[in-house]
Amino acid sequence: MFGTGLANALFGLVALLCYAGATLLYVVWLRHPQVSAGRMATGLAGVGAVCNFGFLYARSVALRTVPYGDLLGSMALFGLFLAAMSLILEARHHDRSLGPFLMPVSLFFLLLSFVVPGGGTPRPELRGSVFAFHVTLNMLSYSAFAVACALSLLYLALGRQLKAKRHNILNGPVSRFPSLSYLERAARTSIGVGVVSLASGLTMGFLWAYRVWQEQHPEWLLDAKIWGAVATLVFYLWVFVRAHRGASPRTTARLAVAGFVLVLLSYTAVNLFFSKVHSFT
Amino acid sequence: MASEIVFVGWNHQGSDLDLRARLAFTPERAREALEGLFREHILTEGAVVSTCNRAEVYGVSDVPDSFEALSAFFSRFHSVDAAVLREKALSGRGEATVRHLFRVASGLDSMVLGEAQILGQIREAHRRAAEAGTARAVTGRLFQSALECGKKVRTETSLGSRPVSVAGIALSLVGRIFESISECKVLLLGAGETVELTARLLADDGVKQILFTNRSPEKAKALATHFHGWTVPWEERAKAFADVDIVLSATGATEPVVTAAMLKPFLSRGRRRGPLLILDLAVPRDIETKVDDFSDVYRYDMDALGELACDNTRDRMADVPHAERIVEESTQKFLCWLAGLAHVDTLKSLHERFEKARCEEIERYAGKLSRLTAEDQAVVSRMTETLLQKILHNPTIGLKEGDASERLTRAAVVRALFKLDDRA
Is residue A65 within 8 Å of A126, Cβ to Cβ? Predict the structure, then answer.
């Protein structure tokens, strides 16, 4: 894990500590909205994201290629995208309420990248811009689906409290959630971003696979990972289209949560246990 | 008589609406009143706080019975019977004045506990008095401290952060569901006072699409014309639910005018987009409770809104002791500052009074002292100076000891004993 150098390890460790601190402070802020706790959480999340980038950059220098050709790197990239999206949404809407939900996921994936084995020296075919775009766009789509999932969970929680006419809709942590219509719109946009980037990422992947695997692994088109990713794309495309055509926001939110479970399965279990050619080794 | 911070006022606790209306100050009238109070030497500093629930004057006065003088002045100024004013007035001096203003700024003295507008009204009163030059060192500091105290109470407690009126709760619910009320399309059922008031508030908030529907179409038409809205035929009211974001109903009907069965064709799966907030302000209800079963529909009736208001009032009440502690701390802090001011002032006056007496005595014996050599005369002068210093040593220390109230009391005693306020 630490074979990619001291700088790599140092950046990774600092990013991890910052994400952990930011998670803690975001949760504290959600319970007791003190300005200082919120600002410190944002600051730590920002420093964490910069160090997460530094971690990937140092790894990239050491590997002399994109640093996310293996599971370790892709998980670290996923953590970075999530932290960045959380910060962008926070800055865009002056609202910290997504931080307590997205930052733990960033922390989890960065932590996981410390646990899973690294791929060692990447194979020569994993170099090149097509492969880099394929992984980057796919990870971007997964992050967008994760954000949509977090927004949808907030939508469902807030909607439930509003239906029940609970006292805490105007006080306490739930009162700091954004409005239902914002959550619904932002989740729809996230799904849209995810669909476009996943479609682009898969196209790049097909191009790369056709060039590299056609001779070595002619059966690549039947691989579980490929079909898992295509199924995810079709599912989210369907969710996006029906949401745009006026489907119930509550049903869309439920589908977005279920969809992210599919993404997680496709990203972890399918990669590790079912895929033969697409196995991060 | 030493200068003292004083206040006199008439608020919702002691005066009825008619009297408060007669005593209200416009900015111009407030300025005129302060000019009059200065002209008649009733106040040397001052500011007027005038809201729909209170008309109060704060300032610094040298007059022995400032309450009587202020009441008499306002009786003439507002042409109101002096006896009525004296009977209904709230007044205070010194510490009581400071505590009262700080409680007012914190919303603890408001009709609706913790209401937020009062802080802005106090800021405005201070600004106007500062511009007129009537808020000087003490009054200026008093109002600044009151604003700080009010802000602290609002930051550290839930007072002011939770709406307690039905209108406030309804507005908060809109904020929980929609990003901006001005972008919402609103349907109003009925044509009574509540609907008219709501339409006015919505128009003030920039809502551009207001639909009116009423059993009597003429009334709906009149409201729609007045508020630049549209009318919906009463028979098509259920259909309109599919196309709006907020529904507010306040008819005088004795039975629900909108039922779940009526809405089913328009609110069931895929027929409408986004959440729908229904505010049923009618008693008895206008909208059937079964409407709750529709997905993404949030219905609040008077029971639910009232319950939320009660919960928030309870929360605010629970925070009153904390707010009172903040007021007390702020009051003591201000009195400390004021006592420091009084202590310096008193010491200065005391030393000047003794020095004057010493000089007068030296002057009185100047003839006899002239027989002494210049060196001996200097010795006598130094000796009297030292004597004064020794006599004033303990009073000087005593005036600095104790808490703020004690220091103020001691300063008042010293001023009275040595007649420091006599101009002669």
Answer: yes
Local confidence band at B279 (pLDDT 50, 70, 90 cut-offs): very high
Interface contact flag, A171 B176, Cβ < 8 Å: no
Q: Locate all alpha helices (DSSP H) within B107-246, ordered by sequence.
A: 117-132, 137-156, 166-177, 193-204, 217-226, 237-240
Catalytic residue positions of B, numbered: 52
Residue type for B314, please? R
Same domain for B60 and B153?
yes
**Do residues B200 and B70 share a domain?**
no
What was the pLDDT predicted at B247? 95
- B141 and B174 in a single domain? The answer is no
Of A167, A245, A251, the CB nearest to B308: A167
Question: Which residues make Cβ contacts (< 8 Å) with residue A189, sequence separation at least 6?
Answer: none
Domain span at B21: 4-159
If one looks up domain A1-122 in CATH, what number appears?
A: 1.20.120
Check residue B307 and give its pLDDT.
87
> In this structure, are B285 and B403 located in the same domain?
no
Answer yes or no: is B326 within a domain. Answer: no
φ, ψ dihedrals at B403, nearest 5°: -80, 180
Instruction: Annotate A190-234 with three-state secondary structure.
Output: HHHHHHHHHHHHHHHHHHHHHHHHHHHCCCHHHCHHHHHHHHHHH
List the single residue in A159, A170, A249 with the smallest CB-CB distance to B162: A170
Copy the structure tokens of residue B331. Answer: 């009051």
Residue A121: its pLDDT value, please?
66
Long-range contacts of B313-318 (CB under 8 A, 24+ apart): B313/B113, B313/B164, B315/A171, B315/B158, B315/B162, B316/B113, B316/B114, B316/B158, B316/B159, B316/B162, B316/B164, B317/B113, B318/B158
- Does one domain contain both B51 and B111? yes
* A266: its two tokens: 């496709």
B309 touches chain A (CB under 8 A): no
Distance CA B125, CA B108 (A): 18
Residue A175 contacts B where some CB pair is shorter than 8 Å? yes
What is the Cα–Cα distance from B270 to B273, expressed in whole angstroms? 7
pLDDT in tens, B308-349: 888 888 888 899 999 999 999 999 999 887 876 677 888 888
**Threshold 0.80, pTM exceeds:** no
CB contact under 8 A, B308 and A180: no
In a domain, B422, yes or no: no
- Put simply, the answer to whether B295 touches A171 (Cβ < 8 Å) is no
Q: Is the pLDDT of residue B353 over 70?
A: yes
Extract the tokens encoding A30. Answer: 């959600």
Q: Do B298 and A248 touch (CB under 8 A)?
A: no
Each residue's pLDDT expressed in tens, for chain A with a length of 281 residues? 444 567 778 898 999 999 999 999 999 888 877 778 889 999 999 999 999 999 988 888 887 777 776 777 888 888 999 999 999 888 877 788 888 888 998 999 888 888 776 666 666 666 778 888 888 898 899 999 999 999 999 999 999 999 998 877 887 778 888 899 989 988 999 999 999 999 999 999 888 888 877 777 777 777 777 888 888 999 999 999 988 887 888 999 999 999 998 888 877 777 767 666 665 54
Nearest to B165 by CA among B116, B227, B102: B116
Give φ, ψ of B9 to 5 degrees: -160, 165
User: Of the residues B315, B350, B367, which one is the last residue of a structural domain?
Assistant: B315
